[in-house]
Amino acid sequence: MTALDPTARELLEKAEFIAIVTQGTDGPHLVGNWCDYAQRIGLDDERIVLPAGRYKRTEENLKRDSRIQLMVASRAVRGARTPGQGGVIHGKGSVQVDGEFAARAKAVFPWARGALVIEVERCEMQL
Ligand SMILES: Cc1cc2nc3c(=O)[nH]c(=O)nc-3n(C[C@H](O)[C@H](O)[C@H](O)COP(=O)(O)O)c2cc1C
């Protein structure tokens, strides 16, 4: 099964940044990352791996509620009706400071304390 559909994957290859939402006790929490970082450390059919330099509140949120949503969009990907596509990637997330993904993040980005790992569940295009 391919959770990360081909359009979402193309978006992650062509867009500039990703908006990432977790749920805190006081409401949604929004952070960012660069799409090329995902390409450099981990982008496959089921998983997105991003370097975690900080992401402290994100980490705390994910310990309580692992649901995570990513929004990515690009004018360079054709939508159903117009140039430009974008959508939401739904999944489960964790900040991992040890293990394979953390090691991979630290090897590419020496400033990283670990990795934000997103296990993709489904993608939903909006355009
Ligand atoms: C475009 C963009 C890229 C970012 N890339 C990273 C990154 O690679 N790693 C990281 O830890 N924070 C990154 N940040 C900062 C995070 O959005 C966030 O402000 C910071 O990690 C603190 O997270 P927290 O509020 O969960 O503690 C980026 C922010 C933007 C806007």
Topology:
Layout lengths: L5 H9 L2 E8 L2 E8 H7 L5 E6 L3 H9 L2 E12 L4 E14 L3 H9 L5 E12 L2
Antiparallel strand pairs: 1-2, 1-4, 3-6, 4-5, 5-6
Flavin mononucleotide binds next to β2, β3 and α3.
Q: How would you characterize the overall build of this protein?
A:
This protein is an alpha+beta fold and 127 residues long. It has one domain (6-125): Electron Transport, Fmn-binding Protein, Chain A (Pnp Oxidase, Chain A). Helix content is 27%, strand content 47%. It is built from four helices and six strands, in the order H-E-E-H-E-H-E-E-H-E. Strands 2-1-4-5-6-3 form a six-stranded antiparallel sheet. The longest helix has 9 residues, at 6-14. The structure holds flavin mononucleotide. Flavin mononucleotide is lined by residues 17, 31-34, 37, 50-58.
CATH topology: Pnp Oxidase, Chain A
Strand order of the largest sheet: 2-1-4-5-6-3
Structural class: alpha+beta
Helical content stands at: 25-40%
Mean pLDDT: 96
* Distance separating the two termini: 24 Å
The total domain count is 1
Beta-strand residue percentage: over 45%
Order of helices and strands: HEEHEHEEHE
Shape: globular
Helix count equals 4
Outline:
This protein has 127 residues and is α+β, with helices and mostly antiparallel strands.
